[in-house]
Amino acid sequence: MSEKDQLSEFSREIIAFQRKNDLTDTEMALNSHVSVEHIHNIKAMRETPDQTVVASLRDYMEHKPTGK
After folding, report:
1. What is the pLDDT of residue 8?
2. Domain range holding 31?
3. Comparing 64 with 30, which gets the higher pLDDT?
4. Residues 23, 16: Cα–Cα separation, whole Å
5. Chain segment 25-51, per-residue pLDDT in tens
6. Which pLDDT value is given to residue 66?
7. What pLDDT, on a 0 to 100 scale, did the predictor assign at position 67?
8. Is residue 30 part of a domain?
9. How many domains does the structure of the chain reveal?
10. What is the DSSP letter of 22?
11. Spatial contact of 44 and 20, defined as CB atoms under 8 Å apart
């Protein structure tokens, strides 16, 4: 899988997670400790996130507590 395909898949995962949990980019940024700019750029496929950003977002998405 190419880097662009992987980025596109991760972008879709973020968007699906936000829809499912009714989260804005700002809420996700605050809760995951990843800047809102990174989230915007990843979703727009303008940025390839480094592994620490990916790990932070995945950890939040896998372990999100009840509520926002």
Report:
1. 86
2. 3-61
3. 30
4. 10
5. 999 999 999 999 999 999 999 988 999
6. 66
7. 55
8. yes
9. 1
10. T
11. no
Q: What percent of the chain has pLDDT over 70?
A: 85
**Residue 11 contacts residue 40 (beta carbons within 8 Å):** no
Q: State residue 1's pLDDT score.
A: 65
Position 9 in a domain: yes
Output the CA angle 59-40-34, nearest 5 degrees. Answer: 35
Residue entry with tokens 């926002």: 68
Compute, in degrees rounded to 10, the torsion defined by CA atoms 49, 65, 21, 58. 20
Q: At what angle do helices 36-43 and 25-32 cross, to 10 degrees?
A: 120
| Helical segments of 1-67, H only | 3-21, 25-32, 36-43, 51-63
Closest CA to 58 of 25, 8, 5, 17: 17
Domain membership of residue 66 (yes or no) is no
Asked if 24 and 18 touch (Cβ cutoff 8 Å), the reply is yes
Q: Let me know if residue 68 belongs to a domain.
A: no
